[in-house]
Amino acid sequence: MGNGRRLGRRFGWLWGAYGTSALGTWLAFGAFPLIAVRVLHAGPAEVAALSAVGTAVGAAVAVPLGPWVEFRRKRPVLIAMDLARCAALLTIPAAFAFGALTFLQLLLVSVVVAAADITFRAASGAYLKTLLPSGDLLVANARFESTAWTTTIVGPPLGGAAIGLLGPVATVVADAVSYLLSALGLGAMGGREPRPERRDAARLRAGDLLDGWRYILADPALRALFLNTALFNGLVMAVEPLLAVLLLGRLGFTPWQYGLAFAAPSIGGLIGSRLARPLVTRFGQHRVLAVAGTLRALWSVGLAFPWPGGGGLLLVMGVELGLIFCCGVFNPVSATYRLERTAPGRVARTLSAWSVTTKASTALLTALWGVLGGLLGVRTAIGLAGALLLATPLLLPRRAAALPVKPDAEPEPELASARA
């Protein structure tokens, strides 16, 4: 569908490394909670803390890493983050083999992996911008997006089978190996990467920690997209635990039906990502961003109304299919828009601040919606999140803003007549 353009050998290695690690992540999807429950006999509060606290603390740890990455070569950082995740994950099967695995170790590993994930994303975005010309960024991001949805379809069923045969620790090993293979692929890319030059003092200062947020908030277009992304992602993810309670508990869906309800619709993300570039070519980047960003907000309210049986299952699958298809179109266009608007010398800091905020808002809203689910009821809380999502298109950039003229320039001040 127009995405067959050759992007070169080095991008091919980067793409392959991404796909390998993404597949490993989905193979191990849900492994930590299963280990906590089955091996360590953890309770619901501990399992919830493993997800929320690990993500939040990992995001906090990653805050100083964004400015640090900005002024270093990106490929060594990518390799280091892959190796750090591999080493951290391998401590789990090692401790399990010796009967020394603890809940604290699971928590610490989740923190390391979350911080490394954020740093890897920041470095990879900055590296991609130096690797390809601007005209190829959307093609590259669409390929990453289609790979992400493909591994989402394939990974969980394979991981579930592996867990059934070998136990959850085996999928953690597979995830660790995927990061090792990713690091080897990145090392095989070859080519020279110039060291970024820092104009001011070489030592990291306290004020540098907020550079990414300052840059985002000073640009009206980036600021609007940033707020939209943080709120949308947070609200969508906040209802996932409540949906599990509703579908698996009150409506009596079986685990395979629950998995099918969310795995099968991922084909929509694959199709949407393949359509992203042709749609931008025909209708323009800003129009596709606005329309896809609006349409993706219309679906989630339907998740409050499933009923028992096949009809309810089809409703959930239909809602998820529509939501994921729109996200498949929106995400690569949004990622490209963000890279194009960010000056080359600020990409790592900006993407790091973006990821930290998104993960933190997701953790916060997930905890809040857990409380609301207990106070208002599960369906009401899910419906409330869906209703709030209907307002998120108001935060999208309202016009096609001009790109910054100077490579390292600060964003131009917002014009009084063009409010975002």
Q: Helix amount, in percent?
A: over 70%
**What is the name of the CATH superfamily of the largest domain?**
MFS general substrate transporter like domains
Q: What is the CATH fold-level name of the largest domain? A: Growth Hormone, Chain: A
Query: How much of the sequence is in beta strands?
Result: under 5%
Radius of gyration: 21 Å
The biggest beta sheet is recorded as:
none
Question: What general outline do the C-alpha atoms trace?
Answer: globular
CATH class of the largest domain: Mainly Alpha
Explain this structure to me?
By secondary structure, the protein is an all-alpha fold. The protein has 2 domains: 191 residues, MFS general substrate transporter like domains (Growth Hormone, Chain: A); 192 residues, MFS general substrate transporter like domains (Growth Hormone, Chain: A, Up-down Bundle). 73% of the residues lie in helices and 0% in strands. The chain has 17 helices and no strands. The C terminus is likely disordered.
List the helices and strands and how they pair.
Layout: H1 9-27, H2 31-39, H3 44-62, H4 65-70, H5 74-97, H6 103-131, H7 137-166, H8 168-187, H9 211-218, H10 220-238, H11 240-250, H12 255-263, H13 267-283, H14 285-295, H15 310-341, H16 347-376, H17 378-389
Describe the structure concisely.
One of its GO terms (molecular function) is transmembrane transporter activity. The chain is mainly α and 420 residues long.
